[in-house]
Amino acid sequence: MSAARLSRWFASRDWKPFAFQRETWRAYLDGASGLVHAPTGIGKTLAVWGGPLLAGMRRRRGRKPRKTAEPLRVLWITPLRALASDTVAALHEPVESLELPWSIEKRTGDTPQARKVRQRQRFPTALVTTPESLSILLSYPETRERFATLECVIVDEWHELIGTKRGVQTELCLARLRHWNPALRTWGLSATLGNLEEARDVLLGHPGRDDARLISSDYDKRIEIETLLPDEIERFPWSGHLGTRLVPQVLAAIERARSSLLFTNTRSQAELWFRSILLARPDWLGRIALHHGSLDRKLRTRVEDLLKEGGLQAVVCTSSLDLGVDFAPVEQVFQLGSPKGIARLVQRAGRSGHQPGQVSRVVCVPTHAFELVEFAAARAAVEARAIEARHPLELTLDVLAQHAVTVALGGGFAGDDLLAEVRTTHAFRRMTDQQWAWTLDFVTRGGPSLTAYPEYQRVTREDGRYVVASRLVGRQHRLNIGTITDASALTVKLTSGRKLGTIEESFIARLAPGDIFGFAGRTLELVSVRGQQVLARRTKLQKGRVPRWNGGRFPLSTQLADAVRGHMPLVSPDSPAEELRAAAPLLELQARWSLIPAGDEILIEMTRTRAGHHVSLFPFEGRLVHEGLAALLAYRIARRAPCTIDLTVNDYGIELLSGHALLLDEGDWRVLLSEGDLLEDLLACVNETQMARRQFRAIARIAGLIFNGYPGAPRQGRQLQASSDMFFDVFRDYDPDNLLLDQARREVLEQQLEVRRLRRALRRIAGQALRLVTTERLTPLSFPLNAERLRAQYVTSERWSDRVRRMVQQLERAAERTVDSHA
Predict the structure, then answer these.
(1) Which of 91, 170, 711, 759 sits at a 20 to 30 Å CA gap from 513?
(2) Rounded Cα gap, residues 487 and 682, in angstroms
(3) CA distance 422 to 80
(4) How many Cβ atoms are within 10 Å of 649's Cβ, its own excluded?
(5) What phi and psi values does residue 110 have, to the nearest 5 degrees?
(6) What is the pLDDT of residues 595-619, one digit of tens each?
(7) Where in the chain is the domain with CATH 3.40.50.300?
(8) Can you state the angle between helices 717-734 and 739-747, rounded to 10 degrees?
(9) 223-383 domain in CATH 3.40.50.300?
(10) What is the pLDDT of residue 165?
(11) What is the 3-state secondary structure (H, E, C) of 409-463?
(12) Other CB atoms closer than 10 Å to residue 480's CB: what's the count?
């Protein structure tokens, strides 16, 4: 009877349940847990929500109607608090139609404090929350009793959490809930993920459950990928230059659809594109909007509401609109610049045609000529379903230290019991007794170097249990819970009092009153900076600096890098892919001046200019791998003979610039590019740079060494940086075995230098031919590296652009002479 009622509700909306939805419902009713994987827009939410609904209808069968809502049954974890309201609405619709006595509410950082207090007294039947808000709930002793009726936890967009510290935080929270209720069911949702079985096992904990399910939809979501081609291909591309030249074609493509999303990879790009479009079409003011994570929440909500209502022609956005929300009017999306990953392109494409049976359409817009090859490679990878894996993190002790204080605050724990509990997570399944003892020592006395400072004795031991006795420690800890450690931001307000959003302190520090900058789609004049507030007024000037935010540049993923390497030799005027035909003039010149590396070759170019001796290598492994490889090569070269080398990388290659020639033959390069002593050499590189120190700043904040400040009075970025640097120096000098220092170095290796991919790349290179070519001038492949190096020498992008344009003109004249000589 319950299943029939749910099927009738589907039929009332002209829907029919998919097989994967019915399979998920049956699994839930059997008491199983698992992961549901299906394309965006075909009903994953109803797949996991249907089980609790059916269980609720069965529970009510034959009973009298309730006057009050049922107690807490379902906890729904979303990675973005911006999705919480839409999730509540989506969950509420069938509950209301089926007349279930359920209440559904959200609890995020935006929830009013009065409602949070009320919820802690009596939770709704279904609570939509974030990992951070769930952690805060676990810090209250009464939560265990209030969660006694909880039957299921659903983790939405699990592919966005796995592989991050927020994912580890979620693992620890789930372990705590399972400790309270071993029968708790756990379900996850994912749309774009390559390692599904591993993702399921991480979600469900260690050891794995016998009833663990992996349910995938067999629905083949159609994705149409189109690339806008420039009228003329520049043979010496440089990052970002081509993009704005395609604004007229982008405008024409926008006009053919009812509503469009224009995705960029960074907030700076979003600001630039929004301004460029409005300059070209000022009559679109009010029909086009801007959306990214640094804008004020009210501005973003207004944009989202207008988009749902069909009131906007287009929205220029970042990953802030990647996930979850159903914008039915959106008929197409644009990818402005390479997506850098297959999963990201598929995820963004799914924002259009967000209904079963509809086609998802994505229009790719190259920002430099080589991205034509990337788009062709991405299309082939999408067709082959070569989606990237997201590997989980392990032994993030900063997150564990924070969680230990949370549990101590939430009623306390026995050391052995909590160790057994955290070992049920994937992240800490291999944790040693010594590592756990260090963690307890860290939260109870700050470790051996901080024992003299009472403020770091956050947890005390009373009657065999670890607890938090200080109310001040408890208050500060709850304010500090979370693993998101963005750069210090200042609030931007207009002189009228309207709040626009936040901007990084490092950018504002370079401006003076009267300087012009662009933000939130407006051109602003800086009036003053007072404390954490930036006061600005609008100006009619059209030009100004665009803020740059840290951490927004994506590297090529493994899958896309492999695909690009495979497509480079395919570029020709006769290629079946239009992008590869369009890029042919660029690669033809590369072949004349140097060569195009085949899939089993590594090209090494040697060029002398007035700047010095350039050596350019092209592994095509992505920016982060190249950063690690460049540091490794410089270290190994300098160890052979002391020298100064400037390093520049992009997604395709590495430039080593020296004042004298690097006299290296193929045998030398084989040694330099060998896998031998990789970790030892990389650790030496890390120790000799600021990379570990920078990485430690985030670790120190997560672990609770640094207090971010109270609401309305956050500590300034300079203060936080100085504090973390002080701890780094203290630990390095007086506590060298500190495991947080070890973690900082590991994170540099694993995340910044991608040592796993780097090792794979070196193994691949060992089996490839090295092609050493001496060139008379910079080639189409090496020129972008040189342009990137010059960027750091200029204060303004205008001066840099002028310099690069002059260099392009000189190289183009040389290219014309080459063409004439071959005519």
Answers:
(1) 711
(2) 26
(3) 25
(4) 24
(5) -90, -10
(6) 999 888 999 999 999 999 999 999 9
(7) 2-61+69-216, 223-383
(8) 120
(9) yes
(10) 95
(11) HCCCECHHHHHHHHCCCCCCCCCCHHHHHHHHHHHHHCCCCCCCCHHHCCCEEEC
(12) 18
Cross-strand pairs, 647: 656
Q: How confident is the model at residue 465 (pLDDT cuts 50, 70, 90)?
A: very high
Q: State the Cα–Cα distance between residues 600 and 609, nearest whole angstrom.
A: 29
Please, what is the average pLDDT of the chain? 87
Question: What tokens does 499 get?
Answer: 């709040």
Contacts 24+ apart (CB under 8 A), 503-511: 503/294, 503/534, 503/547, 504/547, 504/548, 504/549, 504/550, 505/716, 505/717, 505/718, 506/550, 506/717, 507/547, 507/548, 507/549, 508/534, 511/545
Q: Are 251 and 281 in contact (CB under 8 A)?
A: yes
Bridge partners of 535?
493, 528
How would residue 720 be classed by pLDDT, with cut points 50, 70 and 90?
Answer: low
Residues 261-274 as b/e (b if ≥16 CB within 10 A, e otherwise) read bbbbbbbbbbbbbb
Asked if 494 contacts 538 with a C-beta cutoff of 8 angstroms, the reply is yes
Q: Could you tell me the two tokens for 287? A: 């029909």
Compute the distance between CA of residue 340 and CA of residue 554 in angstroms, rounded to an integer.
6
Answer yes or no: are the C-beta atoms of 350 and 191 closer than 8 Å.
Answer: yes
Domain spanning 2-61+69-216: CATH superfamily: P-loop containing nucleotide triphosphate hydrolases (3.40.50.300)
Q: How much of the chain is helix, strand and coil, in % rounded to 5? A: 45, 15, 35
Q: How far does CA 490 lie from the centroid of its chain? A: 22
- Between CA 615 and CA 323 the distance in angstroms is 42
- 155 contacts 148 by C-beta, under 8 angstroms: no
Q: In whole angstroms, what is the distance from residue 659 CA to residue 475 CA?
A: 56
Gap between the Cα atoms of 449 and 236, Å rounded: 55
Condensed to tens digits (0 to 9), the pLDDT of residues 756-811 reads: 999 999 999 999 999 999 999 999 999 999 888 887 665 455 576 777 778 777 88
Distances (CA, A) of 325 to 308, 355, 754: 9, 12, 32
pLDDT digits (tens, 9 = 90+) for 112-129: 888 888 888 889 999 999
Q: How far apart are CA 635 and CA 627, in angstroms?
A: 12
What's the pLDDT tens digit per position in 80-97?
A: 877 788 888 889 999 888
Q: In sequence order, what DSSP letters do the residues of 323-391 get, joined into one string? A: SS---TT--EEEEES--SSHHHHHHHHTTSS-STTPPEEEEEE-SSTTHHHHHHHHHHHHHTT-PPP-P
Query: What's the whole-model pTM score?
Result: 0.88
Token pair of 368 as six digits? 């430099």
CA atoms in the 13 A half-sphere facing the CB of 756: 9
What phi and psi values does residue 647 have, to the nearest 5 degrees? -110, 135
Q: Which of 666, 659, 609 is nearest to 782 (CA)?
A: 609
